[in-house]
């Protein structure tokens, strides 16, 4: 009998890649989605016939209970969140309600209706925040610098508590930034890759950014969802860092993206807007995933420049696909 998996945040970057992976491994896949007036299913359009979508919301306990009851999951992947750091400063209460308490609601549904299931929580490198050591691993203290990071820390410790107090199989994946062409437009890397492609195509002249000196450990999303799956295959629940071990600044990401389209004087195409600068910045995140390599046999393969190339080329290809063919009226 095929194993069953319930994925929250099903329409996002990670949810879409994860569901693809689970389908390839023969799972019966259920995806939890919020009901919207305009469905946001672009990332999963190609697998809609192969998965079962369930309506639900992390604010609504009854919908989570119903989703767990209906899916009878062997594995639950908790990926849904209010995940935009900038938004968390503007809407801190909502962020705490969804990204923090929403996980506890899902844990309650697990405890009541699927106590034998294995549970994965999408923790974040943003929990480390103001770091006192580098690189960061599973033993590094948390010092979050945003309401989003604070909510993720709450969810992390809730998962540890439910694991210890109730004997549930709950694991945290403390994943550093992982990107792809499916990233939301609100995220920095997608904002840059799309902006560079549009400038290259003559459709725009500038990109509005914030702090160019912040450094991040950027990996490739499809490889990181493989780590999520591996974490739940481990015989004992545990917590793992997922990272490339390399840190690159926003400035480096921008320069590399422009270099790929033949623009060397990229500074004239970038404007700095105060609204894009966080009230409290996280300057240097670089992860140590040696535990994941040693215990799970996982390590990332896509390096920084390859990641930037993948994203920029995808944006250029997308623009070309949407252009009307020559000789065909656009209106």
Q: How does this structure look, described?
A:
The chain contains 10 helices and 13 strands. The chain has 331 residues and is α/β, with parallel strands linked by helices. It folds into 2 domains: 199 residues, NAD(P)-binding Rossmann-like Domain (Rossmann fold); 91 residues, UDP-galactose 4-epimerase, domain 1. The strands form 4 sheets. Strands 3-2-1-4-5-6-11 form a 7-stranded parallel beta sheet, sandwiched between helices. Strands 7-10 form a two-stranded parallel sheet. Helix 6 packs across helix 10. The longest helix is centred in the N-terminal third of the chain and has 22 residues.
- End-to-end separation in angstroms reads 52 Å
Helix count equals 10
Structural class, please?
alpha/beta
Instruction: Indicate the percent of residues in helices.
Output: 40-55%
Total number of distinct structural domains: 2
Q: What is the fourth-level CATH superfamily of the largest domain?
A: NAD(P)-binding Rossmann-like Domain
By CATH, the topology of the largest domain is: Rossmann fold
Determine the mean pLDDT: 94
What gross morphology would you assign?
Answer: globular
- Name the helix and strand elements from N-terminus to C-terminus, one letter apiece: EHEEHEHHEHEEHEEEHEEHEHH
Number of strands: 13
Largest sheet: 7 strands, parallel
Write the layout of secondary structure elements.
Elements: E1 4-8, H1 13-24, E2 28-33, E3 52-55, H2 61-71, E4 75-78, H3 85-90, H4 92-113, E5 118-124, H5 147-166, E6 169-175, E7 178-179, H6 188-200, E8 207-209, E9 215-216, E10 219-220, H7 221-233, E11 239-242, E12 248-249, H8 250-260, E13 270-272, H9 290-296, H10 304-322
Parallel strand pairs: 1-2, 1-4, 2-3, 4-5, 5-6, 6-11, 7-10, 8-13
Antiparallel strand pairs: 9-12
Helix pairs in contact: 1-7, 2-4, 4-5, 6-8, 6-10, 8-10
